[in-house]
Every structure is written in C-alpha cells, then in structure tokens.
Amino acid sequence: MLLDLIKIDLSLGLLLFIPGYSILIALTRAKNPLGTLGTIVVSMVLSLGITNFSLMLINRLDFKLTPLSIFSILIIITTIGLILYKIFQKEKLKKIPASENSNWLIFFLILSFSIFIRAIYLIPKIIPHATDLGHHMYWVNYIIKFQELPIYGIPDFIIGEHLIFGAASILSGVGIISALPTIILFIINIFSLLAIFLLTKELANLLFTSKTAHKIGFLSLLSIGVFYAIASPQATYINGGVIGNLMGNLLIPTIFYLFIKAVKEKSSTLASLGFFLAGILAYTHHLSTFIFIYVLVGFLIFFIFGFGLIKLILKNNNVEIRPFLKIFINLKTALTSFLILSFVFLIRIPSYLNLSAIDTAVGNPSKETRTGLTINNLVHSTGSWRIFYSTVGLIFLIFIFWQIFKKNSLAKKIYSIQISSPLKALTAISLASAWFLTIFTMSHWPALLKIDIISGRIANYLTYPSAILAGFGVYAILQPIFNKNQKIITLTVFMIIFIPGIISGLFDVSESYVEDSSKFDETIETFKGAEYLAVRTNPDQKILKDHIYLTGDTWIKNFLMRGYKEPLSRTLLKRYTDVVKKRETCTRDMIAIPETEIGKKCFEKTKIEFLILKDGFDTHQFETSDNFSRIFATDKVVIFQKK
C-alpha cells in the first residue's frame, strides 16, 4: 500500500505539475509575474493540457500508451523547458513581493477548512459508484486496456475528460476501480478554488489598493470554499463524476486570470498562455467551451460600451485601445492559435465539432427543461446568501465605473479605490459583470440567446462568478462600517452579514452529508456480481442490468469491457415515455413482465441470457419462473440465467 501511494504521488506530480512548471518558467524566464501561488496553479493547469496533448500525439504517431512512452514524452518536454530557461535566464528569479506573503494565515485557514469539509464529505464515498463516473471510467479503462485512445462515435464525450485518469492509472499501476478518480477530481476542485481566489484578487487589484484586493480575494474564497462547499458543481460533482464541469470550472477562471495578468503586466506571453489554455478547454468539455465563448462575447459587449462612454465623457484622446489590443493580437498569440488549430486538423478533431452537435446546442429551446429557470430556481442552485451579495457586488462595480469620471470623491477614499488606468479598470468591471450576467441570461432566458441546452446544467456555472461578485458585495457593505471604526456597529453588521452566510452556506453540507452506509456494501456486492459475469460469460452472451435499483450498476461495463452499450440496462421509467423521442421498451419489459408475450418477444429479439438485479426488487417473477434460474446471490444482488 505504501508503494502504491508513492507511485500515485510521483505519477500525479509528473502529470499535474512538473512539465507545466518547466514550460512556464521557460516562457516567463526570471520575471516571475504570477507569484508563487499563481505559478503553482498555472503550472498545474498547463501540465494537465501538456499531458492531454502528449497522449494525443503519441496515439497519432501509432505508439502504444505505455508507462515508458508517457514518461518519456513528459520528461522530454520538461527537459526542453529547463534547457530553454537556462539559455534565456539573464538574472536570478525575482523574489516574491512582500504583499503576497501578507495575510497568509487567513488564506491558509480558509483553504484548510475548505479542504476539510470536502474531505469529510467524500471519505464515506471513496469507493466509486456514481452513474456518470462509471460511464466516464469505461473510456478510461479502454485507454488502459488497449493502450490507445478511443473513437467515441457519440458527441457526449470528449477526449480531454479521460486522458489524465488513464495516464495516472498507467503510470501508477492503480486501476480506476479505486479511489484514484476521486483523488484526481478532488485535486482539480481545490485548484479551481485557488484560481478563483487569484482571479478575484487580480480583478480587485485593478480597482483598489493591494491590501484591499487581498481582502476581497479572501471573501471570495470564503464564499466558494467554505460556504456552499459541497454544492454542485463542487464536491457533489467529484463524487458524481461530472468530470467536464469540474475541469471547465478550473480552466475558465485560470484563463481569465492569465488574461487579466496579461493586461496588468502588458505581457503577450501571458496572453498566449491564456490562448493555449483555451485550446485545452476546447479539448476538455464542450459545454464549458460553449459557455466560455458566450462569456467572451458578453465581455466584449460590456467593454465596447464602457469604452465608448469613457471616450465620450472624458473626451481624452490619450485613452487608446490599440496598446491594449497589441497584448492579445500579436505574433505570440497568433503562433499559439496556429498550434492549436494544427492539432485540431492534424492530430485529433474534438468529437463535438460537427453541425449536428452545434444544432442541438444552438436554437430555440426544444424541451421544457431548456426553457429557463425561475429566479427562485437560480437562487436555490446558487445559494441565497451568495446570490444576494453577488447582486450587491454587481451594483458596486457599476458604481466604481462611474468613479472613473471623478477626480476626487469621498467614495474613493472610503473604499481605497485606486484606478491607474481607465481601460484596466473597465476590463476588470466588464469581465466580472459579463461573466455573471451572461450565464444568468443563458439559464434564465435561454430563448433570448438561442440556447438549446438543459438550463440546470448552465446554471451550475453561475456558482463561480457569483462567488467573485459576492466578495465585492460583502466588501462594499463592510468597508464603510469598518472605516468609521465604531466597534459595536461594526460587530453587529459583521454578524448580520456572516451568520446568514454560515447558516445558508453550510446548510447544504448538513443536508447532503447524510450517507446511507448500505450503499457502500451494495456497491461491493454489485462489483462482485460484475466480476462473476466477467469470468463466467463470454462476449456473445448478452446481459441485462437494472439501473433503477442496482447501486453502482454503470460500473459493470468496466468489468466486462465488451463495448460502451454493454450490458443493456433498464433505465428510469419516465424515459420510456419521452414525448420528444421514441424509446425502446424491451429493457423495461424483460424485467417487469418477462413471462408475457411482450417479454418473451423481447428476450428473443435481444438474445438476453443473464440478468443482474437488486434482490427483492422485481425479482419475484424470476424466482417463481421455470424459465429462469438463480446462479449468483449476495445479500443485495442476484443474477438470473435464462434457461
């Protein structure tokens, strides 16, 4: 066990830090523009992308995905990065500014508590059994078993969701029917918290003093890390295996963080890194990419409108957009874009890049679940405390925008507003506002933006921008009170703000933490049944499982490895009466009415020979039938064979 832990640690270190760090320091040289925490986060995300692109390249060159091939290419990339760093290094690495070390204890406490809450929630669920995770791990298992990348044939999956799990399993030797998937998803979620903290701090840095920016960053981290700590799309998604959403919620804020740092530092290198991460996002999750594009369009609308106001009111010809555009439109960003496009056309095309997939995402909403969520729905999914203070934060940012046009004001003094450049301030305000309002519109009024995607899935992306705005909103209310230095009033307002946050924010922890201990045992029993079928049957013998009652049933395919759609499954009953799309009913009828003419015809048609069910749930008809015999049984799982 100790050896396995060491192998996992070394494998994850190689896959999720080392190559990204070497390339990052080679590109930024000794300037260290991101600081320690920023370097760690960006190195992790870059490594994730480098790992994905490396595995796709190995596969395209017809090499097998073995421990040797994966290790070799990552070490080569790391070595190239270190050599380039040494060649171009002209000075010693700059020390971290003292301001970055301030308030480290507060940061450490908030982050530790955030990790603790998630760990407590996830430990009882460490044996994987969630439906979506089982589906995803089939493709990961395919990579491990056949040492090549799968051709999906369906737009529901994209290769970037599976490569890191496959590479980690191949390097460490630990299978995916273990805690490994949950550990990786947990790491991704924690780094997304760090990305939100960094982004919030940098947005605030363009508007306030450095000390104030840290305060707002801490408030945002508190909102996303501690309050609503396991609400979707966070810890509940780790356990549920909604991989693409989790990765998207790491990549999107990291991309925005690099863009904001590029503006602040006037660095085309950081902008090109943001372009590269956008390419990684395109290979990782289609919905996240779709939302990212919409948010960028929203940002441009906000920015252009604000720029027009600045030019009109200030009448300042010195406020030029050309130097701003040079950061994002230059040789470095062009080469990065060319590299990504070359990968798309020469190495592997993302599975969703086709007209049918685009047609299903864009257009008038076609189902009731796609016609938009109510305000109450959005408040419930995002959190009442957080949505209230994010609204306050949005109003506060609009207020700050008008401060651009005032030379001296009391508000600037009270809030420590420090705007060095109108365009930089406009960038921060436009990004934070557009990110929130675009997703809000997509989920509340999808027809307005021609969105034909389940509104609930889009609403999950509102969590992260609302956490950023909530940081600004809480600061907007607290700062004037703290500025007056009246202890009783300050303490009262502080409690009024944070006690509802604790109650509302941590309620989801107590509500979601209730864990049925029997699920752990049922999952193990399902796995035993799956092992039995994998050994005692051959690929020509058809199997039917029950998704309604059987715990961890989607993982059965990982034991069989006979195709993504094997075994057949009885799904939720409401899906058989879909008014939009006609569904087959044999998988339902073979379990519900096996002895009827309908059931017999279905058995003849599908050639089903084995059924794996939860004992006591639609099993009586098989127990009493002369046409079936029970060949396997545990406390909760039974397998019947058709005679």
Topology, pairings included?
Blueprint: H1 2-16, H2 18-28, H3 35-60, H4 67-88, H5 98-101, H6 104-122, H7 131-146, H8 163-172, H9 180-205, H10 210-226, H11 235-240, H12 243-265, H13 268-282, H14 286-314, H15 322-328, H16 331-347, H17 355-361, H18 375-382, H19 384-403, H20 410-414, H21 422-444, H22 455-459, H23 463-484, H24 487-513, H25 518-536, E1 542-546, H26 556-560, E2 568-570, H27 586-592, H28 597-606, E3 608-614, H29 620-623, E4 628-633, E5 637-642
Parallel strand pairs: 1-2, 1-3
Antiparallel strand pairs: 3-5, 4-5
Helix pairs in contact: 1-8, 2-3, 2-4, 3-4, 3-9, 3-13, 4-8, 6-9, 6-10, 7-8, 9-10, 9-12, 9-23, 10-23, 12-13, 12-14, 12-21, 13-16, 14-21, 19-21, 19-23, 21-23, 23-24, 27-28
Structure, explained:
The protein is mostly helical and 643 residues long. Among the domains are: 1-89 and 131-175, no CATH class; 518-642. 66% of the residues lie in helices and 4% in strands. The chain contains 29 helices and 5 strands. The protein has helices at 2-16, 18-28, 35-60, 67-88, 98-101, 104-122, 131-146, 163-172, 180-205, 210-226, 235-240, 243-265, 268-282, 286-314, 322-328, 331-347, 355-361, 375-382, 384-403, 410-414, 422-444, 455-459, 463-484, 487-513, 518-536, 556-560, 586-592, 597-606, 620-623; strands spanning 542-546, 568-570, 608-614, 628-633, 637-642. The protein has a 5-stranded mixed beta sheet with strand order 2-1-3-5-4, sandwiched between helices. Helix 26 links the parallel strand 1 and strand 2. Helix 3 crosses helix 13, helix 12 runs antiparallel to helix 21 (422-444) and helix 21 (422-444) crosses helix 23 (463-484). It is globular and about 90 Å long. The mean pLDDT is 88.
